[in-house]
Every structure is written in C-alpha cells, then in structure tokens.
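dCTP pyrophosphatase 1, pasting as requested.
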Amino acid sequence: MTGSEEGSVSLEVLKTKMAEFAKERDWERFHSPRNLLLALVGEVGEVSEIFQWKGEVPKGLPEWEEKEKEHLGEELSDVLLYLVRLSDICGIDLAQAVLRKLELNAIKYPVHKWKNHSA
Ligand SMILES: [Mg+2]
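Structure tokens follow.
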C-alpha cells in the first residue's frame, strides 16, 4: 500500500482488496456468511484478549508499548476486514448501510434531548 492510500482508504477499496485476496488463494469456497461471521467474532475475541485483565485504560493508551498498540491495530484491522467481507458476501452495501444507520441513530437520539444530560 502506498502512503497516499493510507489517509483515504474506503470501504469499497477494502471490499475489492478482500475479494481479490480470497480469489487469489481460492478461499472463496470458505467465505460463506456463517464462516465469515464466526471469523469476525473470533477476531473480536482477539481484540478482547488484548484488553483482558488490564482494567480500565485511559484514552490513547499512553502507557502501552508501541508493540502492543501495533498488535491492537492488527486485530482491529482483522475485525474490519471480516466485517467488510461478510457484508459483501451478504450483498449489503456497508457504506450506504452505515450512513443510513447514523441518520437513524440521530433521529432516535436527538441532540436537544441528550446534550448536557447524563444518560
Ligand atoms: Mg487476528
């Protein structure tokens, strides 16, 4: 990946890259919705393992070693990649769905009702 792609990566690019990755390895036969969901949940578990037993940690993880943060980045990436792949295989346009969901959330939780109020 070139440096210029890093700041502007889109879900569409990730979708295409994941599809190519699977096709090149003949892994498409394994990428059923169920298998991808289980893989996604497994990767969420790997993220959880990193936080396990650490207690609450401050935002930005200032006391973590670079190596640990790099590992976290890898596992969060696995979660995103499986989410993108699962959406693709299910025929869901994730970019469109997530924008719609944000709109629905804004309607459900209007600013005037929540700002300066504790939940
Ligand atoms: Mg992983």
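Note for the archive: The pocket of magnesium ion is lined by residues 43, 46, 75, 78 (CB under 6 Å).
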